Amino acid sequence: MRLETGSENTKLKERLEKIVSSDRISHAYLFEGPFDIDKEALARGFIKGVLCPKGLGENCGACNICSKVDHGNHEDVSWFGKEGLSVKNDVVETIQDKLNVRPVGERNVIVISDCDTMTQQAQNRLLKTLEEPPGNALIILLSENMENLAPTILSRCVKFRIDAQSGKTLDASAEELVRMALAGRRFHELVHAAGESTRDRAKAGQLLDSMERVFRDMLLEGHKDIRTYKPEEIGRYIEQIEEARTRLNQKMSAEYAMKELLLEITE
User: Fold this and answer.
1) Given this model, what pLDDT does residue 31 score?
2) 2 within some domain
């Protein structure tokens, strides 16, 4: 399946290919990933794999169906997103109306971008659709932070996390930053080490992912060259990183989100 996600998501692509080729497609999927990841491209690739007449788990990229999905004019595929700051109740009403119309092909496909911004009323309405999806519908939710969604919605979706990492440089930078934090280095030293991540939102999000991975490795597998800390200490650092990611997802500046985190872990 030609999903435009980068080599770091090979396992994810393989899993999606297997889902399509085995014809065991669920009615709802949720893809979570940082704001700088092109989740819409991944969704297009998955949709082409589902709808492509080849039926081999791959989208051929050449047939009329794949071409229509790429150009956004497939009759059965509808894209929705937030209006202003959130996905509102009337958007979900429109989605429900669309799903009640008989598709031209085998199924209606709905994609909701920024689904983690849905109002509570919109989430409640969408839940009814997820509980009793009409016909052979496929609903794809794209999110930066699935924690903003109700547990009842999450429980009705097959969830996938899109990896933001594309190389070892950020992992190495994150390991050095973690090492400095655990060694008790001062706030201004950590800010200097974080570099462009305190100014660039994309790099800030990627560094947070890498830092969390380093801390989780310490908990789950041990970590070379870093002395042992109590699990509750490491758990606290992970929670602080998650809070920083939430601040970033709420469109706060990279400088604020990162400096707040670095200040917290030096206290």
Assistant:
1) 92
2) no
DSSP label at residue 80: E
What is the rounded distance in angstroms from the CA atom of residue 1 to the CA atom of residue 14?
8
Residue 157 and residue 48 in one domain: yes
109-163 pLDDT, tens digit each = 999 999 999 999 999 999 999 998 888 999 999 998 888 899 999 999 998 888 6
Please provide residue 132's backbone torsions phi and psi, each rounded to the nearest 5 degrees. Answer: -135, 70
How high is the pLDDT of residue 38?
Answer: 80
DSSP-derived 3-state class of residue 229:
coil
Q: Is the pTM of this model over 0.70?
A: no
Residue pair 52/60 in contact (Cβ under 8 Å)? The answer is yes
Instruction: Give the residue ranges of the chain where pLDDT is below 70.
Output: 1-9, 36, 54-62, 163-172, 219-230
What does the DSSP 8-state code read for residue 58? Answer: S
Residues 6+ apart with CB under 8 A from 25: 19, 50, 138
Q: Where are the alpha helices (DSSP H) in 156-250?
A: 169-182, 187-194, 201-220, 231-249
Q: Which residues contact 204 (CB under 8 A, 6 or more apart)?
A: 197, 198, 248, 254, 257, 258
pLDDT computed for residue 164 by the predictor: 59
Instruction: List Cα–Cα distances, 259 to 71, 150, 172, in angstroms.
Output: 41, 30, 20
Q: Of 161, 194, 217, which closes a domain?
A: 161
Q: Quote the domain boundaries for residue 69.
A: 7-161
Is residue 81 a part of any domain in this protein?
Answer: yes
Q: Are 76 and 108 in contact (CB under 8 A)?
A: yes
For residue 160, list its beta bridge partners: 31
Radius of gyration of the chain, Cα coordinates, nearest whole angstrom = 21
